[in-house]
Amino acid sequence: MLLTAANSLLQPLAPRLLHCGGGGDLPLRSRRAGYLVMNASGEANNPAIVNAVFEPFEEVKKELLLVPTVPHASLARHVYSDPCEAAINDQINVEYNVSYVYHAMYAYFDRDNVALKGIAKFFKDASVEEREHAEKFIEYQNKRGGKVKLQGMMMPISDYDHLEKGDALYAMELALSLEKLTNEKLLNLHKAADENNDVQLADFVESEFLGEQVESIKKISEYVAQLRRVGAGHGVWNFNQMLLAGAAVV
Ligand SMILES: [Fe+2]
Ligand SMILES: [Fe+2]
Does 222 appear as a known binding residue? Predict the structure, then answer.
């Protein structure tokens, strides 16, 4: 049935455009290799392509046969492997999970008996950003003709106080570890793209995520260093005020 459809589409074109033999159906412009040339003598309707390197209507036949006819199949999907599709869905889950943890941290630092509003704001913004990362992957999945499959998420812990480190340092060290873990996951995704010769996906991960991820790791590392330096108590309050005044999101 597909073959019939393809043929019926191509048939009417054949006399005009698929002809590439030697002599003279199209207006003749040239007989030099690979070029179409005009014949001033008036063979205006005669196509002639000599030594053509690309015959679009001939070569497109196999693609035309592959155009899906069932409504649940993507029309756009092209050179997109199942492992890459699955790896994107995994990364969507990673971004959502990290967003969820940051949201739990925001809720903790916003409590009335914790009241570190700057740190709360920092984690709220970070949570939104991770969700935006998930959405970026969702859009990309759809762009490539993959199917987004959302997976379950881990329930984050609710309390971030730590006996030795205190809450701010503990949460920031946790955030640093999460960003490094995300970096590892992104590198795995890039590896999946490489293994499946998906240059487009590799480029997407590189240009949209890898650079920014390194920036995030550097920024949170600095926050961990600063929190270690200032110690608990008043130092944390000053750190909190700095974030309240407006610090970059990770
Ligand atoms: Fe992210
Ligand atoms: Fe991040």
Answer: no
How far does residue 189's CA lie from ligand 1's centre (Å)?
A: 13
pTM for the whole thing? 0.79
Both 111 and 55 in a single domain? no
| Pairing state between β 37-38 and 29-30 | antiparallel
Q: What is the CATH number of the domain that holds 86?
A: 1.20.1260.10
The pLDDT tens digits for 35-83 are 444 444 444 555 566 788 898 999 999 889 889 989 899 999 999 999 9
Neighbour count for residue 226 (Cβ, 10 Å) = 16
- 190 within 8 A of 202, measured Cβ to Cβ: yes
Containing 22, the helix (H) or strand (E) segment is none
Distances in Å between the alpha carbon of 157 and those of 17, 93, 106, 110?
66, 18, 12, 15
The whole-angstrom separation of Cα 70 and Cα 1 is 13
Tally of domains in the chain: 2
The CA 68 to ligand 1 mean position distance, Å, reads 34
Instruction: Please tell me whether residue 29 adopts helix, strand or coil conformation.
Output: strand
Closest by alpha carbon to 170, among 105, 237, 235, 100? 105
| Local structure of 139: helix, strand or coil | helix
